[in-house]
Structure prediction request, 233 residues.
Amino acid sequence: MTLDAYAAHANGHHHFQLSIAAPTGPDHYKKLHLAGMGKLLDYVNLMAYDFAGGWGNCSGHNANLYQNSQNPNATPFDADSAVKFYMKEGIPAEKLVLGMPIYGRSFQGTTGIGQPYSGVGSGSWENGIWNYKILPKAGSTLMYDGVAKAYYTYDTSTKELISYDPPDMIKRKVTYLKGLGLGGNMFWEASSDKKGADSLIGISSSSLGQVDSTQNYLHYPNSQYDNIRKGLQ
Prediction:
């Protein structure tokens, strides 16, 4: 209501969007009043990543699409279960946005995916997190879990496993979300991406076929950032 009132005062025609970053863990999303949220929100951005990390007992996929009942330790969470729950509880498919990571999570001293590990090691900006633009690491082999629909690399000499989304996984996820009629996808976060043909954002854009364009009404002339001061012109 506040946004609508502001729009009427400031412009009279423009609809200011209201969206949230939403959880993909059932302990959290089952507490949400999704039917009501579906009526009010323009987009629900699912944070479909950080499914496994240093808080768990076993190495796991960072952003898998599905569960793997053959290796449950590798898939404590999955994107598809969250997507289906949100839709069932009242969020229109076209308002759901699938989040994708532009980074990988590492596990050291492990024999494979879904196995115990000794630590997460260092990272690009936080222990256990590596920017996509430096992956895969030299000496590692890219592996694919066809059940969970997720990739990871493993180095047999260092016993380091890193779960991340390479270009092919972005294409698979775009195919998935288009098949369900979802509203699109988002990324966290842009500075970790590669340039050129291996850019995950670029691959997503070309795979989707079109990019939504919304008129910008941002006015923040005192911002410390040049692009914001100029209204993203």
About this structure: The CA atoms of residues 107 and 133 lie 18 Å apart.
